[in-house]
Amino acid sequence: MTLLVISPDYASHLLPLATLATAWQERGEEVIVATGPATASIVADFGFSRVNLQLGRGSNPGVIRAEDQPAGEDDALRGFFDATRAGMVETLRFQAEARSSDLLYEPVEKAREVLAVVERTHPDQILVDHLAFGARLGLDSAGIPYGDVVLGHPSALPIGTEVYGHPPFWPAAFEPPQNDLEALRALNESVRDSFTAEWNAALAILNPDARPSEDAFAEHGTLLMLNYPEALHPPARTATLPTHVFLGSAVRTEPADPEVEAWLAASAKRVVYVSFGSFLSVRSDVLRRVADALRPLDVRVALATGSSDPAAFADAPADWLVRGFLPQVTLLEGAALIVTHGGNNSVTEAATAGVPQLVLPFSTDQFAGAAGVVDAGVGIALAPNTATVSELREASIHLLEEGGAGTVAARAQSLGEALRAEPGRRRAYDFLTGQTPPASPSRQ
């Protein structure tokens, strides 16, 4: 049996998809990954075969810098970073205005390339990143079934009156003016309509008999898979989802890192892991504030500087571990707290490890993800641009509290135990091979 994995050329997308695919690999089945060259080493590290498929202009092998991107993409990335400094609505507005070129790149050509890959590899099952719109367009136009994996927060698939790009909920730390929210929604509705028109135009070329979409952002495969813990999702929204399965998380196995393992073993002090992921680590101003907040506490800090200048943290305490990249899963296994931007990989991996979360969301579905962490009682969310050193320190102290069942740490630990009992890769395999029936609205 052969599994085909279709992923954009971004490490943050490929890593969870590849982790799900290990369930096929463990059973001796073939795994082929269709993605771009920037992530070829990740495919090789997993021991999978690769066919070349470049679904978009940009790429990200692990840490992203504007100067590493193609002409045009570099300026767009700098514009995005500038928008995060302005705030929640400004960032979401910037992303809405860039959305069509980001998500539906050369749709007819890419759809046909995907179909050519399917024809060449003859897969028994297919896993596709939900945000690979060009790939899903091709599969939908040909009536090919596939596992549609929503790697971000489930709100990446709008339902009911929701509009893609407009968060259905966010933490109380953010209080955008109502008129700004109304203008943002109107912009996202306009983008939705133009995106849908572009989707339908491409679909008509690929399959003139296909039914046009009313909202291309709301399109999804029949085998809908949510890479997210159901416990962090609002029950009322869960009840309105189309037929689906919650995977919990796709926690990867990392190669050994002797330096990190020795550092973890060197002291009994509690560990705080700090990372803003591959994109938002550029916000060294916020990382610096977090470092200043943690400095007086009786903890050791593992700080991933990412695309920030390491010199900004040259004065870190001697027992801290400061590197450009750190093995997140390994550190979470030994951490008492994570300070994160709220990317879905970070949120779900921390939840699986049973680690409390201090979430500082900057963009996209990070706001909804942060709200889920807060509502489930496993973390605190603050606004990254305005949270002071003292507020960050106070939140960290609260999350580091140890005690009875009512503490955040105890709730996080309980959630982690439940998620580890049934790994996401096992759920994905059973669902895609028909061994586990999906949940549907009528059964919620």
TrEMBL record:
InterPro entries: EryCIII-like_C, Glycosyltransferase_28, UDP_glucos_trans
Superkingdom classification of source: Bacteria
Erythromycin biosynthesis protein CIII-like C-terminal domain mapped to chain residues: 290-411
Keywords noted in UniProt: Transferase
MF (Gene Ontology): hexosyltransferase activity; UDP-glycosyltransferase activity
Pfam short name (any one): EryCIII-like_C
GO biological process: antibiotic biosynthetic process
Claim: Ligase is one of the keywords in the record: no
Protein name per its UniProtKB record: Glycosyltransferase
Source organism: Subtercola boreus
Signal sequence region: none
